[in-house]
Amino acid sequence: MDMLLNYGSAFLTGGIICVIGQILIDKTKLTPARILTLFVTLGVILTFLGIYEPIAEFGKCGATVPISGFGYSLFKGTVKAIEEKGFIGIFTGGVTATAGGIAAAVVFGFLASLFAKPTIK
Amino acid sequence: MNTNLNISNSEYDDLISKKAQKSPILKNICFAFLVGGLICVLGQFIYNQMENLGLDKETCSTITSISLIFLGAFLTSINLYSRIGRFAGAGSTIPITGFSNSIVAPAIEFKSEGYVLGIGANMFKVAGPVIVYGITSTVILGLVYYLIHYVF
After folding, report:
1. How far apart are CA B48 and CA B61, in angstroms?
2. Is residue A120 part of a domain?
3. What domain range is B80 assigned to?
C-alpha cells in the first residue's frame, strides 16, 4: 500500500511538472532547450527558497526525475557541502552531488552517438 | 452531410478556430502528463529496488538518474525517443531522459563533421546551457545562503 502511494505521488508530481512545461511550449515561443534551462534554474531557485524540498518529499522521484530535480540536487548538495566544509562548499557541493548524473550523461551520450547511425528526418 | 451548417461564415470561422486551437493543446497536455508521469514512476520503481537493497538515499537517487540517462541515450540512438517525443512533447523533454536525449540527438546529427567538432562539440548544444545556468545559479545562491547563515 505504501509502495502504491509512492508510485501515485510520483506519477502525479512528475505529470504536473511536465504539464507546466507543455503549457509553456504551447502558449509561449519557448523552445524545449529554453524550457530545460528554465526548469533547472527554477529548480535551484525553488530549492533555495525552501519550496522544492516539500515537493520532493511528497513527489519523491516525481520531483527528482524531471530536470528541475537536477537543480534541486545541485543546490541541496551545495548546502550540504557548506555545512561540512564551509566557504569552499559553495563551489564543490553542487557538482559533487550531481557528478554521477553528469558523468553518465557524458559517457552514455558519447557512446550512444558513436554507435547510432545518422538518419534522414 | 452539411445540413447542420446553418451558420454564417464568421460564426463558422470562430467555431473552426476554437476547435483547431483547443483540442491539440488539451491533447498535448494529456500526453505530457501521462508520459512524464510514467517516466517518473519508472524512476520510482528503480529507486525502490535500490532502497530494498539497503542503499542510502543519495546512492539510490544517483543510480536512478544514471539508469534513466542510460535509457534516454539508448532509446535516442535507436531512433525511438524522437517518436515518443512527437506525441509526448514536454512529457519526454523535461524528465532526465529528455536531458540525455538532448545530448545524443545533436551529436548524432552532426556526426558526419567528425569525432571532435561533430560529436564532441555538439553533444552540449542543449545540455551545455542547462549545465551553465544550473551551476551558475547554484553557486550564486550558494553564496547568498552562506552569507545569510554564516556571516550575518
Report:
1. 10
2. no
3. 11-109
Nearest alpha carbon to residue B72 among B44, B104, B24? B104
Q: Which amino acid appears at position A80 of this protein?
A: K
Q: Would B151 be classed as within a structural domain? A: no
Residue spans of alpha helices (H) in B1-152: 9-52, 57-77, 81-88, 90-93, 96-109, 121-122, 124-146
Domain extent at residue A91 = 2-115
Angle, helices B9-52/B81-88, rounded to nearest 10 degrees:
130
The answer to the question of residue B72 being in a domain is yes
In a domain, A27, yes or no: yes
Residues 62-101 of B with CB under 8 A from A: 62-66, 68-70, 73-74, 76-79, 89-91, 93-96, 98-100
- Element counts in chain A: helices (H) and strands (E): 6, 0
| Residue B144, domain member (yes or no) | no
Domain count, chain A: 1
Total tally of structural domains belonging to chain B = 1
What is the predicted ipTM? 0.94
The tens digit of pLDDT for each residue in A25-81 reads: 999 988 889 999 999 999 999 999 999 999 999 999 999 999 999 999 999 999 999
Tell me if chain B has a CB within 8 Å of the CB of A1: no
At A18 the pLDDT is: 97
Contacts of A85 (CB under 8 A, 6+ apart): A92
Contact A70 B134 (CB under 8 A): yes
> Is A23 in Cβ contact with B77 (below 8 Å)?
no
Q: Check CB contact under 8 Å for A40 and B90.
A: no
Contact A67 B99 (CB under 8 A): yes
